[in-house]
Structure formats: structure tokens, C-alpha cells
Design a protein that fits this description.
The complex is a heterodimer of chains A (about 350) and B (about 280). By secondary structure, chain A is mostly helical. Chain A is built from 14 helices and three strands. The radius of gyration of chain A is 22 Å and the shape is globular. Chain B contains ten helices and twelve strands. In chain B, helix 3 crosses helix 5 and helix 3 runs parallel beside helix 6. The longest helix of chain B is centred in the middle third of the chain and has 18 residues. The two termini of chain B are about 30 Å apart. The chains are: A mainly alpha (about 350), B alpha/beta (about 280).
């Protein structure tokens, strides 16, 4: 045991932080599973478990773009939306072919991630060549475009396969896409996905969070991650040591988009009805708030911020009208507290050795 | 200085670029050859007719009054700016149309006048980023932590400490780069540039902000680096004791034009140079 403690102490600080993050997520999962199975959680909390998982994945993946790559993305919900609807289409249309719900969920998450990665490539390739705030502007527009596109998307499925139509004129309905009678409607334009079989589970959410953490944390600690952080810290110097700027920017951005797509698929398959307006600009900003309050580049911070700030508005329900006011005040207090030098010094006295490399846990 | 000649179109013609110290590298091809190099910014000619050659293991100095275009020359060599005119041959290969990252992979590494470190990362990570192109594992083996990852990361860790030991900085490996004292930041930048395995190292005012004893130490280290790695070093510096002390060839730039080339003694007695620095004698 003593030997083990010695070995743990000998690890690098970043490795310790990573392990603590994994351990914390596992403990939280076990705790909430036990509480839920004992019936100690109220219904509203139980219903929030899967969305919390999805938002944690969203926050961690956005932190890869904003904290590690250093580019501002204002359309992360757009990738979530792409993932959600492609995931729902995949899961619904494979109902007959793949009877096992967990396998179907896994396929849906993969499909969601893949489509979001494609969307990330389409946005990233032209924009990441530019320097400055262009990415923020373009992703903002992207999020809105995706919302409008899905609003006029009609998708159904019958024995002959998928039927897809774009209801650009507004005259089409789900009956006009050439489905056989008895075919299943999956997405009905502005109504969004309807009649989805909800197959998302808390366990799947937990696995997705762990996968996301493994991908993001291991990426950050690898050669590629160092290159990404190098071009965040100093682009000119990164170029001068031979780092291909566009390649690594794209790598980080597409990974981030793909993970958001996976989160979207999980989220989408948790609700029987889901409209595109759920993934609006507000959602993007909400996730950005999680990232900023949790700390740029700090993955465990994003996890805690996403979980706490998602529950907070619900927990504040008894304040009724003052709910959002209290929410805003809490945000401001957290910001003040995390930027206060005196509080930081106090924390430094309580937890010694907080100096040194403060980068990216 | 004897003019170098080549055989061209049936007769010997003088080469426009004269090696700064021809006697040192006679018989060997030079590492860097610039001919007719120039750049215009709008109507302003910042550098013009810049012709030099640098030998394989030469320490060359580039000096001149403020605003002479010295850093612009470095930016041209590393393609931060694309030259308007002229060619740059590195080890005989044309560098036309290359990006700064490609230039680094071809063998030119540099430091910056205003230090550009990766401030939020550790000292060790800064050096490891310099080793980026010598590590070969892919993003997937990095995420899955395949044996390749562990092997190469271990090698990179050892190499980084080895490089840091040149300046006796191994004990600082876990410090945050931005928190280092000024002199150490300058040294770390040199280590990071060396990590990219260059054949030509460009140092932009390496002794800026250093006290005389630090400068003396730096001079020893520059010579040590040249001898250890067998590379060419070209430096911009205002500290004349450093330039005259270690540079085997010196090139003086004024208003974007080369006004003199030669050894330290030749430069010190050159009337054009004295005029450029001190003004015309009455």
C-alpha cells in the first residue's frame, strides 16, 4: 500500500489530475445509480441524468476548441443538433435490423459523431485557414443554418429504406415523401423528431463521458495535443518549429465537433419528441458558460460546471419568478470568486503546492 | 578578399555572393546561399540585393543600425515574409514558395527578438514541441496510448532533458515557461529551436537584456552549440563584444543594403561601417 502511495506521488501532476477526473466521474456514476435504484432521487432529477451526461460531453468537447485550441466557437449546439437528428434517424430506421437497444444506441452515437465530424470539416476547412474571430462568426451562422435546415427536413422510413425530402416551399407534409402506407415518420419538419423510441440510458451516458474524457485528455497529453496548445499560445512560434497549423487546428475542431455529435445522439434518443429549436444559439452560449466557468482547458472544471449549472435552474424552482435572477447572481459570484486573487491565495494556503505548472487539467 | 568564381558559359565569372569567410568552407558547399534577395512593402524597399553565403559550421553575424532590416532578413529566410525578389538556397535546395513550417523542416530554426515561448506550457513541453517532427506516432496511437506512444514519449522526455542540460536547465523542466526569468526564457528559446534538429540556427538578438557576465556565458554556449551539433549559426546582435568575439564572418546592413562583409578586423576598420554607425567625419 505504501509502495502504491509512493508511486502515485511520483506521477506527474497532470497525470494525477487526469486520474482524479476519471475517478470522480466513476464515483459520481456509482453514487447516482445507487441512489436512483434505492428510489432516493426525485423524478425530476432522474429525468435529468441523461441530459446532464450529454451536456457534460458537450462542455468537455467545447473546452477542446475553446480552452485547448483557443478558438471561439459559438455554434456548438449546431453540431449537437446534427448528431441528434442523424442519430435519431439511424436508431429509428435500424429498429427492425438491430433489435438490441444498447447496440442501436451505440450505432446511433457513432452515426451522430460521424455526421457532426463531416459538418465540422465543412465549416472548419475554409474558416480555420483564417486568423482572428472568423470561426466565432461562422459557427454562429452555422448553428442557425442547421436549425433552419432541420426545420424543413422530412424523413420517413419504410420497407424500401429511407425517404428524405426538403420542405423548402413549406407546402410538403410527411405524406408527400413517397412512403408506403404503414411507413414510419421520423422527422416531421418543424415538429422535429416525433415518436422516437427512447433508448438512451444513464449507463450509456456515463460510458460516453468516459470515452470523451479518454479521447480529449489523451489527445491533450500527446504529440498532437502539444502542437494544438503550442499554436494557441503562440502561432508564429509554433510555425517556426515546424508545426502544420491548419492540420492541427482542424484536428482539434473536428474531434470537438464529433464528440458534440455523439452527445447530441445521446440527447436526442432520450426524448420521444425533439424539435430543432432545442439546439438554438442559447444552447451554444449555455455550453460556453459551462466551459468558461469551469475554467478554460480544465476538463474537470467543465464537468462540474455542466452538472451543477444544469441542475441549478431546476433546484431553484421554488424561487419561481426570481429563478433566472438567482441563476445570474450565482454565475456572477462564481466568476468573481474564481478571479479573486485573495481567494486564490487562501486556497493556496489551504492546499499547498498549487504553484508551478497550472496548465490544463 | 578573394572573389569566388565559377565556370559559366565557357569562362570564369565572379559569383555575386561572396562567402563571408571563404577560407573556412572552401571545397564544401555552403548551407545557405542568398542571391539578389529583396522585399518591398508597398513602395518601400526594406531589403535589397542581399547576397550572402554561410558555411556549414560558420558563426555569422548580421549587424547594422536600428531599422536596417536585420530582422526582416530573418523573416525572409524563414518565409514569415515571402521575398519580392531573389532566391534562397538552403543546402542547395530552393526554398521558393515554402511555408515557415516547411522551412523549419528543411533545416532552419530561429529564435525571436521579442521572446515567443509557449507561456502556459511547461519548460519540458516547450522543448518537446520543438521535437514535434521527430516524433512519429499518429493521433490514434496517442489517444489509445499504444506501445509506440510510450516508447517515443520516453525518448522525447530524455532528449528534452538532454537538450536542456546544454544550458544547465534540467531542474527547471517542470516550471511554467512564462514564469521563467528573462535570461532563462531566451535560453529556452534557443533550446527549443535546437530541438527541431536544424542545420542553420538563426538567433535574433540572443543577448538582449543580459548582463555582461550572462553575455560572456552565452558566447561560450553559442560556440559550444556549434561544436556539438556541427551546425551553422547566424545571429543578429547589438552587443559588439559578442559579435566581434565569436562571429567568424560579419555582414553589415544599412537601409536594407549590405554595406560591408568580412571578418571582425575588416569590419572594425571599414570606413563605410564607421560612417553608418557614427556618422560622417567633419
Amino acid at each position: 500500500m505504501k509502495k502504491l502511495i509512493g508511486r502515485i506521488k511520483g506521477l506527474k501532476k497532470t497525470t494525477k489530475v487526469d486520474f482524479a477526473t476519471y475517478l470522480g466521474v466513476i464515483l459520481a456514476f456509482v453514487l447516482f445509480t445507487v441512489l436512483r435504484d434505492r428510489g432516493l432521487l426525485n423524478r425530476s432529477i432522474t429525468g435529468m441524468l441523461v441530459p446532464i451526461c450529454a451536456y457534460i460531453v458537450m462542455a468537455v468537447s467545447l473546452n477542446l476548441t475553446v480552452g485547448i485550441l483557443g478558438e471561439l466557437s459559438l455554434g456548438h449546439a449546431g453540431f449537437m443538433s446534427v448528431g441528434a437528428f442523424s442519430g435519431v434517424i439511424a436508431a429509428q430506421s435500424l429498429q427492425a435490423a438491430v433489435p438490441s437497444a444498447p447496440v442501436r444506441l451505440a450505432i446511433a452515437i457513432l452515426v451522430g459523431a460521424l455526421f457532426a465530424a463531416v459538418a465540422g470539416t465543412i465549416v472548419g476547412v475554409p474558416v480555420l485557414r483564417l486568423q482572428g474571430d472568423y470561426l466565432a462568426i461562422v459557427t454562429l451562422a452555422f448553428g442557425e443554418i442547421i436549425k433552419e435546415l432541420i426545420n424543413c427536413l422530412l424523413v420517413g422510413c419504410d420497407s424500401r429504406g429511407l425517404h428524405i425530402a426538403f420542405n423548402i416551399t413549406g407546402n410538403l407534409t410527411i405524406n408527400d415523401i413517397g412512403m408506403e402506407p404503414g411507413g414510419m415518420a421520423i422527422i416531421k419538419g418543424a415538429q422535429g423528431a416525433t415518436g422516437t423510441t427512447t433508448i438512451a440510458s444513464f449507463t450509456a451516458g456515463f460510458i460516453l463521458i468516459m470515452l470523451t474524457l479518454v479521447i480529449v485528455l489523451n489527445l491533450v497529453r500527446s504529440r498532437a495535443g502539444r502542437a494544438i496548445m503550442a499554436l494557441r499560445d503562440n502561432r508564429i512560434a509554433a510555425e517556426s518549429v515546424g508545426i502544420n497549423i491548419t492540420k492541427y487546428k482542424l484536428m482539434a475542431f473536428i474531434t470537438s465537433a464529433a464528440l458534440a455529435g455523439g452527445a447530441g445522439a445521446l440527447y436526442g434518443l432520450n426524448y420521444s419528441n425533439l424539435s430543432a429549436s432545442k439546439f438554438s444559439f442559447d444552447t451554444s452560449i449555455l455550453v460556453l458558460v459551462y466551459v468558461v466557468l469551469g475554467g478554460l482547458g480544465r476538463m474537470w472544471g467543465s464537468i462540474i460546471a455542466a452538472a451543477v449549472l444544469y441542475i441549478l435552474p431546476e433546484a431553484l424552482r421554488e424561487f419561481a419568478d426570481y429563478r433566472m435572477l438567482v441563476y445570474a447572481i450565482v454565475l456572477i459570484l462564481v466568476m468573481l470568486a474564481t478571479n479573486n486573487d485573495q481567494l486564490k491565495a487562501l486556497a493556496g494556503r489551504i492546499i499547498p503546492k498549487r504553484k508551478g505548472v497550472s496548465s490544463n487539467g | 578578399m578573394a572573389e569566388k568564381k565559377v565556370f559559366e558559359k565557357g569562362k570564369m565569372v565572379p559569383v555575386p555572393s561572396v562567402s563571408i569567410i571563404p577560407e573556412r568552407d572552401l571545397g564544401k558547399s555552403p548551407i545557405l546561399e542568398c542571391s539578389h534577395l529583396g522585399i518591398d512593402f508597398g513602395g518601400l524597399t526594406a531589403v535589397n540585393e542581399f547576397n550572402i553565403t554561410v558555411g556549414r559550421t560558420e558563426i555569422a553575424g548580421l549587424i547594422g543600425p536600428n531599422g536596417a532590416g536585420k530582422t526582416t532578413v530573418f523573416n525572409l529566410l524563414t518565409k514569415v515574409y515571402q521575398p519580392t525578389r531573389g532566391t534562397i538556397l538552403l543546402d542547395g535546395l530552393d526554398t521558393h514558395g515554402k511555408t515557415p513550417a516547411q522551412i523549419n523542416r528543411m533545416g532552419i530554426a530561429r529564435t525571436f527578438q521579442n521572446i515567443r515561448l509557449f507561456n502556459n506550457l511547461s519548460v519540458e513541453d516547450n522543448v518537446k514541441i520543438g521535437l514535434h517532427n521527430q516524433e512519429k506516432y499518429s493521433m490514434v496511437s496517442g489517444i489509445l496510448r499504444l506501445p509506440k506512444y510510450w516508447r517515443q514519449e520516453k525518448a522525447a522526455h530524455e532528449r528534452a532533458l538532454e537538450l536542456l542540460s546544454i544550458f544547465d536547465m534540467q531542474h527547471m523542466a517542470n516550471y511554467q515557461a512564462g514564469s521563467l526569468p528573462y535570461g532563462a526564457q531566451r535560453r529556452l528559446e534557443i533550446v527549443r529551436a535546437l530541438a527541431t534538429n536544424p542545420s542553420l540556427l538563426l538567433l535574433d538578438e540572443p543577448a538582449a537584456g543580459m548582463n555582461p557576465s550572462e553575455t560572456a556565458e552565452l558566447m561560450e554556449n553559442i560556440v559550444k552549440i556549434r561544436d556539438m551539433f556541427q551546425i551553422a549559426i547566424m545571429l543578429i546582435e547589438h552587443d559588439m563584444s559578442l559579435v566581434m568575439g565569436i562571429c567568424e564572418g560579419i555582414c553589415v546592413l544599412n537601409f536594407g543594403q549590405i554595406i560591408a562583409k568580412g571578418t571582425a578586423e575588416e569590419i572594425q576598420s571599414n570606413p563605410t561601417v564607421i560612417e553608418a554607425y557614427l556618422g560622417k567625419q567633419q
